[in-house]
């Protein structure tokens, strides 16, 4: 097994994503969005709402528009090497992208006369108004306390899907009550509430496309029956950092995670398989999909 040659030296772009969860009579569900087939990266793949960190995310008026201070958010992210503005901005980015891509807004009214109108907020945002200005106009404050860090995934130097690299912080959060999720028909073309294991089974059967961060996150979420259980698990330990390392063996690409015998980091970061095999443009867990059911 030989290390795969690096195909890019691009610095990973800071980004944020959020797995929105809800309880139903049939079990816990997570929201997935299908990226447009025309996307330059991960075309047609089902993902959690998310996107790149914007400069405006790091300069939002936290004193009036956030329910926590930037210092508290920095502490909650468990990344001492990340500056405070970036750390708080990642929370803002996750909430902004959720509004942009699926129309869900985790916010609270600042005054009794105000109300959380996600539809209007999304329309204003899509019309070109800055996120901070939208919140100010509608007298809203972002509920960053609803977000709990879950994991951090960094695209390897030998990407298997697209040329771009991202440094993505994944959060988990309960979906806001009384709001309806709907894809934007631009970046995303489908939206579905689905049980995590069902999503993995559909991927296994070739019905949908997923990539490793979503595959492994869904496998972890599938171990929980209720949203509260997920949030409790997220709060009990710092989010792991996963920088996969790629190897080539007999013409096959193998993606290794921390804890794998071939990975430079010996400490395991995630339960379950430590390798994915890239076969016929799909990621297959080491040991097959049965390795994902009981982590």
Give the topology:
Elements: E1 2-3, E2 13-22, E3 29-35, E4 46-47, E5 50-52, H1 55-58, H2 62-65, H3 70-77, H4 84-102, E6 107-109, H5 118-126, H6 131-137, E7 140-142, E8 148-154, E9 166-174, E10 188-194, H7 196-204, H8 212-221, H9 227-235, E11 241-242, E12 245-249, E13 252-256, E14 275-279, E15 282-285, H10 290-293
Give a brief description.
With 295 residues, the protein is an alpha+beta fold.
Q: What does this 3D model show about the protein?
A:
The chain has 295 residues and is of the alpha+beta class. It has one domain (2-293): Alpha-Beta Complex (Nucleoside Triphosphate Pyrophosphohydrolase). The chain is 28% helix and 25% strand. It is built from ten helices and 15 strands. The chain has helices at 55-58, 62-65, 70-77, 84-102, 118-126, 131-137, 196-204, 212-221, 227-235, 290-293; strands spanning 2-3, 13-22, 29-35, 46-47, 50-52, 107-109, 140-142, 148-154, 166-174, 188-194, 241-242, 245-249, 252-256, 275-279, 282-285. Strands 2, 3, 4, 5, 8, 9, 10 and 11 form an eight-stranded mixed β-sheet that branches. The chain has a five-stranded antiparallel β-sheet with strand order 1-12-13-14-15, with no helix packed on it. β12 (245-249) and β13 form a beta hairpin. α7 packs across α8. The longest helix has 19 residues, at 84-102. The protein is globular. The mean pLDDT is 93.
């Amino acid at each position: 097994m030989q290390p795969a040659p690096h195909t890019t030296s691009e610095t990973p772009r800071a980004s944020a994503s959020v797995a929105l969860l809800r309880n139903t009579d049939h079990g816990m569900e997570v929201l997935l969005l299908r990226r447009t087939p025309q996307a330059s990266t991960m075309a047609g793949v089902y993902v959690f709402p998310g996107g790149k960190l914007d400069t405006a995310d790091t300069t939002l008026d936290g004193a009036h528009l956030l329910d926590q201070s930037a210092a508290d958010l920095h502490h909650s992210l468990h990344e001492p090497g990340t500056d405070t503005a970036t750390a708080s901005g990642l929370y803002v980015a996750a909430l902004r992208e959720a509004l942009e891509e699926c129309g869900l807004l985790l916010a609270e009214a600042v005054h009794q006369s105000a109300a959380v109108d996600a539809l209007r907020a999304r329309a204003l945002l899509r019309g070109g108004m800055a996120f901070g200005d939208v919140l100010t106009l509608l007298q809203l404050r972002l509920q960053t306390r609803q977000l709990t860090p879950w994991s951090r995934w960094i695209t390897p130097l030998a990407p298997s899907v697209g040329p771009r690299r991202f440094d993505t912080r994944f959060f988990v959060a309960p979906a806001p009550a009384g709001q309806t999720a709907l894809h934007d028909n631009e970046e995303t073309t489908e939206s579905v509430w689905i049980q995590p294991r069902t999503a993995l089974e559909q991927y296994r059967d070739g019905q949908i496309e997923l990539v490793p961060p979503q595959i492994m996150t869904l496998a972890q979420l599938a171990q929980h029956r209720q949203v509260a259980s997920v949030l409790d698990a997220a709060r009990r330990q710092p989010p792991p950092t996963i920088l996969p390392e790629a190897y080539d063996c007999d013409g096959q690409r193998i993606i290794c995670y921390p804890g794998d015998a071939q990975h430079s980091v010996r400490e395991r970061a995630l339960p379950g398989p430590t390798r994915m095999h890239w076969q016929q443009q799909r990621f297959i867990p080491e040991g097959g999909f049965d390795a994902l059911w009981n982590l």
